[in-house]
């Protein structure tokens, strides 16, 4: 599905355009990375990605994009390992990857980080690179680590690394306000919206219970995404109404899901709730998402959501916390979904019940920017950083 647009983008890329090294060591946001590459190439830039090697079933995630897969050769990619000992080794590999990154950066005009997962280490690399060329960061999560419990060193390092970049990109005005509240200079913060992501063409997944209203929560399962809140909300719904629901949570678990499953069993949710743990292939993901009647995002915190922009073109009812991109998209599109206060289980339960049978007003072509426009806005950020350096 993506091959033709990428080929066109490469044809439009100028041979003399600025070269940009984009950094996503763990490949947290591959669909976003690929779409941004298309937008940058369409604006005459020459992007490359510093990242890890691809895992099985990921072969087409960055198809058409130039990659430098030198991060985590022993602990991630096709050799992915988990456990405390492997995490320690991955930390050492991160240091080695940063050293390689500082060398590779010398070949590019601009370096653009997507994530800074280990700020206390990353900030040193950023400062080294910044001695010779501008460095930009997209702040995908305006609350550090989306509220996950992390060490004090990581939290203190987060503020330091934000200050180390020439320019910061956020996806919403709320994100901009959050960075201003941290005391960061206004002229270094740019709002570049998150675009709609392409979803592979696939037949909707066959449904064992086609009469039920299918609501899907998809993506990496982390604490801030509120799966536990979703279970509690389902427990508040009248059992007769709940029997009309089929709520599916699917994705690679990065939290312990056993307490969630135990709570669902204690609430006697039965067939109304299913948790599918594990990473889905691109085809399986597309089939599941296309089979949904509605999507739910009971997040505790967020600025932008890749999954939201992956399903935005499906014209399904959206139920989401009143945060970041959810507020921007649902709040500005009449009859597209429902916003609820974050962590308000009763309001979430009411929104789920109210969603049954509802269809949104189709989005208009002007509701969101395309990736060529986003690429142009991102290029403007690069040019501002380069102009500052030249001055």
UniProtKB/TrEMBL annotation:
Single Gene Ontology MF annotation: glycosyltransferase activity
Superkingdom classification of source: Bacteria
Xref: Pfam families: Glyco_trans_1_4, Glyco_transf_4
Residue ranges occupied by any Glycosyltransferase subfamily 4-like N-terminal domain in the UniProt entry: 36-196
Annotated signal peptide: none
UniProt cross-references to InterPro entries, sorted A to Z: Glyco_trans_4-like_N
Protein name per Swiss-Prot or TrEMBL: Glycosyltransferase subfamily 4-like N-terminal domain-containing protein
Organism for this UniProt entry: Sphingomonas aurantiaca
Taxonomic lineage of the native organism: Bacteria, Pseudomonadati, Pseudomonadota, Alphaproteobacteria, Sphingomonadales
């Amino acid at each position: 599905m993506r091959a033709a647009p990428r080929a066109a983008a490469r044809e439009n890329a100028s041979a003399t355009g600025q070269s940009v090294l984009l950094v996503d060591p763990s490949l947290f946001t591959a669909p976003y990375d690929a779409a941004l590459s298309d937008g940058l190439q369409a604006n005459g830039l020459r992007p490359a990605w510093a990242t890890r090697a691809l895992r099985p079933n990921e072969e087409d995630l960055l198809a058409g994009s130039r990659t430098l897969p030198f991060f985590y050769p022993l602990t991630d990619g096709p050799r992915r390992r988990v456990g405390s000992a492997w995490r320690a080794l991955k930390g050492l590999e991160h240091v080695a990857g940063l050293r390689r990154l500082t060398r590779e950066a010398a070949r590019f005009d601009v370096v653009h980080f997507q994530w800074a997962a280990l700020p206390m280490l990353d900030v040193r690399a950023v400062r080294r690179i910044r001695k010779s060329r501008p460095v930009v960061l997209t702040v995908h999560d305006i609350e550090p680590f989306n509220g996950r419990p992390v060490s004090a060193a990581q939290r203190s390092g987060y503020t330091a690394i934000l200050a180390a970049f020439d320019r910061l990109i956020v996806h919403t005005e709320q994100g901009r306000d959050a960075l201003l509240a941290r005391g960061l200079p206004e002229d270094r913060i740019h709002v570049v919206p998150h675009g709609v992501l392409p979803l592979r063409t696939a037949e909707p997944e066959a449904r064992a219970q086609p009469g039920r209203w299918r609501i899907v929560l998809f993506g990496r399962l982390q604490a801030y995404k509120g799966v536990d809140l979703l279970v509690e909300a389902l427990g508040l719904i009248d059992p007769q109404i709940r029997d009309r629901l089929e709520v599916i949570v699917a994705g690679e678990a990065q939290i312990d899901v056993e307490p969630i499953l135990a709570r669902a069993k204690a609430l006697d949710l039965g067939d109304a709730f299913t948790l599918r743990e594990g990473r889905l292939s691109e085809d399986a993901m597309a089939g599941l998402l296309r089979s949904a009647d509605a999507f739910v995002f009971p997040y505790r915190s967020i600025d932008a959501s890749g999954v939201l922009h992956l399903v935005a073109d499906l014209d399904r009812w959206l139920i989401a916390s009143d945060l970041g991109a959810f507020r921007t998209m649902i709040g500005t599109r009449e009859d597209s979904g429902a916003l609820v206060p974050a962590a308000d289980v009763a309001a979430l339960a009411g929104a789920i019940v109210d969603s049954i049978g509802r269809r949104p007003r189709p989005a208009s072509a002007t509701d969101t920017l395309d990736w060529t426009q986003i690429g142009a806005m991102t290029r403007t950020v690069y040019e501002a950083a380069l102009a500052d350096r030249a001055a």
